Amino acid sequence: MVSFIVRMTFRTEDREEIAEVLRELTPLSRAEPGCVSYVPHTVESEPDTVVIYEQYRDEAAVEFHRASAHFARLAVGGLYQKMLLRQMENLKAVA
Q1: How many domains would you assign to the chain?
Q2: pLDDT in the model for residue 76
Q3: In whole angstroms, what is the distance from residue 50 CA to residue 4 CA?
Q4: Which of 10, 25, 33, 64 has its CA 20 to 30 A from that of 45?
Q5: Between vectors from CA 44 to CA 38 and to CA 48, what angle results, nearest 5°?
Q6: Please, are residues 34 and 61 in contact by the beta-carbon 8 Å criterion?
Q7: Which residues on neighbouring strands pair with residue 8, listed in sequence order?
Q8: Domain extent at residue 80
Q9: What is the helix (H) or strand (E) element at residue 12, kind and residue range?
Q10: 37 closest CA partner among 63, 4, 86, 9
């Protein structure tokens, strides 16, 4: 299992556009083979920060996600163009 969190910060004026992109990207990502979980959140105390919890069956599923047309269009061509800061944390299950 491969799990990670992606944290991105955006400008306040982009908030609704980012939410719309995430509403489109989420069901497409969840439908991918090997996607276990794809859950975008906003941070309650930082409404311009988005945290996406992602979990995939294996590295091949992660690569499939990153090579998908919807990822290229919505993440690379959308979110990445608007983000001010991006951090990624790889997670290791404890139990």
Answers
A1: 1
A2: 98
A3: 14
A4: 25
A5: 80
A6: yes
A7: 50, 86
A8: 2-51+59-91
A9: none
A10: 4
Give φ, ψ of 47 to 5 degrees: -65, -10
Pairing between β-strand 2-9 and β-strand 46-56 as defined by DSSP bridges = antiparallel
Nearest of 50, 86, 60, 74 to residue 2 by alpha carbon: 60
- Tokens encoding 65: 């996600």
State the Cα torsion 64-77-54-35 to the nearest 10°: -30
pLDDT tens track, the chain, 95 positions: 999 999 999 999 999 999 999 999 999 999 999 999 999 999 999 999 999 999 999 999 999 999 999 999 999 999 999 999 999 999 999 98
Q: Which residue has the tokens 């944390």?
A: 89
CB 78 within 8 A of CB 72: no
- pTM score: 0.94
Structure tokens at 30: 């969840």
